[in-house]
Amino acid sequence: MKIENCLLSDSDQIIALYDAARKLQVERGMVVWPVFEKSFIESEIREGRQWKIVIDGTIACNWATTFEDKQIWGDKDNNDSVFIHRLCTNPNFRGNRYIDKVVEWAKNYARQLGKQYVRLDTLGNNTKLIEHYTSSGFEFLGIFKLTDTSTLPGHYQREPNCCLFELKL
Q: What is the pLDDT of residues 1-18, one digit of tens each?
């Protein structure tokens, strides 16, 4: 197992992982991610913000990072965090708690960059995801209503209830 930046050649696999995640979200009655354009994913890859866990040449888990998230975190966003977005697991690898590997990686990555927090969010009142993230060390800060979602992906515009999680380093 290794964790590394995604390559442009991974973009079709990432799209397939997002498709599988959307299918699971529909099945479980969760907030459903929009279809992300390939150009959007490739832009994140070029910026070094798409990451993957690779096992035997296959992407087992994928996520994106950013260092600014004002529309979600508001005044708490003080250039002191690594934010994790769109964390998803390959259906063939589900149940292996890759969240624990991502958290360890994110803590080390954030420390290297001089950050104080690792943060993430999820939409709606998804008790299973709340349990999943808190079991991996995140503190659940509560559910907050987003007020300005105009430049966020579509699922943020459809669901204003946002669960915030942070890990203080």
A: 999 999 999 999 999 999
- Residue 152 and residue 40: Cα distance in Å, rounded? 13
Which residues, including other chains, have CB under 8 Å from residue 70's CB and lie 6 or more apart? 77
C-alpha distances out from residue 110 to 85, 115, 116, Å: 15, 5, 7
**Structure-token pair, residue 75:** 């005044």
pLDDT range class, residue 125, cuts 50, 70, 90: confident
Helix (H) or strand (E) holding 105: helix 98-112
Total number of residues shown for the chain: 169
pTM for the model: 0.94
Whether residue 165 contacts residue 121, with contact meaning beta carbons closer than 8 Å, is answered with yes
Name the maximum alpha-carbon separation found in the chain. Answer: 43
Mean pLDDT of the chain: 94
Q: Which residues of 97-125 are buried (b: 16+ CB within 10 A; e: fewer)?
A: ebbebbbebbbebbeeeebebbbbbbbbe
Q: Which domains does the chain have, with CATH numbers?
A: 2-168 (3.40.630.30)
